[in-house]
Write a structure and sequence with these properties.
By secondary structure, the protein is mostly helical. About 70% of the residues lie in helices and about 0% in strands. It has helices at about 5-10, 15-25, 35-50, 60-70, 75-95, 95-100, 105-130, 140-160, 165-180, 200-230, 240-260, 265-275, 280-300, 300-305, 310-325, 335-350, 355-375, and strands at about 60, 265.
Length: about 375
Amino acid sequence: MRFDRREFAGAVADVGVLVPIAVALIVSNGLSATAVLLPAGFLYIAAAFTYGLPIPVQPLKAFGAIAIAKGLGSDEIAAGALLMGVVFVFLGRLHLLDVAARAFPKALIRGVQLTVGLLFLKIAWGLVLDPPKSFAEHALPAAWAVPLAAAGVIAAISLRRFPIALILVLAGVAMMVAVGAGDAALGPSELAFPTLDWATMATAFTVLVLPQLPLSFANSCLATADAARVYFGEKAKAVRPGRLATSFGSANLLAGAIGGMPVCHGAGGLTAHVAFGARTGGAPLAMGIALLVLAIGFGAGLAALLTAFPLTILAALLATAGLLHISLLRDLREPWAWALALAVGLVGFQLHLALALGGGLVVYWGLRLAGALARARPRTA
């Protein structure tokens, strides 16, 4: 593992996804701040030693967005995390995802990565134009926030050879402490273990788990494994879909047991870590330790502190990761591959990733079957 300024810069590059969802779950849904950060911290540390690469850890985005929008309580969220954990540990340990991954061509995976990149841009735009309620007290007006975030994107892309992400995050932390230090408190927040029954489990499965399953399968498993191979080649041979499913599934069993935030891996987060300098397991190890320190040392006052973190910095990092993630499409060569990737990406972004994946598979394998039948048909004189 490597520990230097570029590795540390890469370590913090994905906070644009983590912080807003974590804060909303703490403030709006009543989750313990310590419980929210512990699963992410432990999974980052596990990823550092399991893969030796900057494998990211992110909240379950669709899951979190639905839970926040519907105001679900900690019991439903915990039930959903447990169900996600059971499903993906089961699929991962039986290597079913490694088998299923062979059916997905590169163009289809690039389409998934396009969807994720566009979603990152959409979230970044929403952070500055329509700030989440949790951040509203400290948010800048859009007239200031949009140009500042755009300047941050330009700086982040043009200065990637320098530890620009680390500089931006440290500046954000300094502003956060300056604004919210009066409400800070030391020590962990109280852990509230969930109370589960069949009604709670049924609600969690239908409302939270079903919409998240295709996104986790496609992005957390298939697209993350593919992005790791693009960035690291043979060094990423251990980053397989089934292994990724097992690692984040195990973390979700912990999240469900303590009423915490469900987590996953993500191809967009891998792009963020790599783009800003991370190359080894040092980045996830550093990030994991930082999250554990925050969870245990400052969990009691973390909700007040995090809401003061500048949204313009989060949006800039998130938008930069989205743009760089979309650039993964550049290795496509054939026109049909570009057409399939664009179609899958846009359908996944505008409608639903499950529809995009299903439609893409039907089109790809339908064309392959038609071609095989055409070649096998005997020629007539």
